[in-house]
Recover the amino acids of this structure.
């Protein structure tokens, strides 16, 4: 693995999260009880989908997505907090406000 890149490995917590993580439909929705693993699985899914994109001539995989929560504070305190925690081991992540870009192993 090149410098500045990292590898993420995870195992979904149950068959519903596994099916959700593997789904490549255009529109994705998941709901369930607090602590069920929805946020983590969604983060892994976003990174996985981004890594599946075809690289540009410059070797960059460009991908966009949207994450929706009930309120802006909910988004900051759950998804963004967990994303930064999971990706903290890489110094190659750039995060400004709610826009994040990073380099990771394909």
């Amino acid at each position: 693995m090149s410098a500045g890149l990292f590898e993420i490995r995870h195992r979904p917590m149950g068959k519903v999260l596994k099916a959700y993580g593997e789904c490549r439909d255009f529109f994705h929705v998941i709901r369930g009880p607090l602590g069920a693993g929805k946020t983590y699985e969604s983060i892994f899914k976003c990174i996985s989908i981004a890594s599946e994109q075809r690289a540009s001539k410059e070797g960059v995989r460009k991908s966009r997505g949207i994450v929706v929560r009930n309120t802006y504070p909910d988004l900051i305190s759950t998804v963004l907090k967990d994303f930064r925690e999971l990706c903290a081991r890489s110094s190659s992540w750039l995060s400004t406000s709610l826009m994040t870009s990073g380099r990771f192993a394909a």
Residues 80 and 96 are 11 Å apart (CA to CA). The first strand starts at residue 94 and ends at 96. Residues 15-99 form one domain.
